[in-house]
Amino acid sequence: MSEEEKAAAPAPAEEETKKEEEPKKVEEAAEEESTATFEPVVKLEEVETKTGEEEEECLHDVRSKCFIFGETLLDKGTGNKTWRERGVGQARILRHREHSRIRILMRQEKTMKVIMNHAVDPRIKLEPNAGSDRSWVWSAYDFAEGELVETVFALRFADSEIANGFKEKFEEAQKEMEKVLAGEDNPGEDGGAAADEAAEALSALKTSGDDDDDKKEEAE
């Protein structure tokens, strides 16, 4: 290398200084950019979501798997009925704070679709499912699909102890519901007719997402 080339070439220290200064300049530029603010074109207002359970207190809450017994869409009209799973979720026994009527409500996990919604009718009898000590079967007028439909349910629990605990709480709720339906001032009222009236009253209990659920299939 000639003397002129050596003189023109930067010293090693100068090269290192330039390399250190370059990242600093990039960082400073990034900091300047991060101070910029952008106003959204459309402002979304916060909307309070109601589940329909705000006026109720929970008497019992247990995770289980729900099944229903009946015809599938393919078997409709054939009389061929089978058990099919409706979903997994929390089975909740709820009492209304104002009129004290009790219902059982169950939503499918993740989708929160209502898969069980009926009054705790005092006439319901929980029967053990054949071959299992951790499930109960019963029939009720269900309102999960937006209209009252007589449905045969089965709930399966993690073990027999949890299943028996559910049965105990359900029967306690039935006794309480029977007193509510009879009425303190009219103990001679027909309990069966009152229970039917309670089932019809479920149509007034709105649950979040009912309208949307009518438009789409259940997510299994």
UniProtKB/TrEMBL annotation:
Residues 15-28 have a biased composition (Basic and acidic residues). It comes from the Eukaryota. CDD domains: RanBD_RanBP1. SMART domains: RanBD. One of its GO terms (molecular function) is GTPase activator activity. One of its GO terms (biological process) is nucleocytoplasmic transport. Gene3D superfamilies: Pleckstrin-homology domain (PH domain)/Phosphotyrosine-binding domain (PTB) (2.30.29.30). Residues 1-40, 176-220 are annotated as: Disordered. Residues 210-220 have a biased composition (Acidic residues). Residues 37-179 form the RanBD1 domain. GO terms for cellular component: cytoplasm; nuclear pore. Pfam families: Ran_BP1. SUPFAM superfamilies: PH domain-like. This is RanBD1 domain-containing protein.
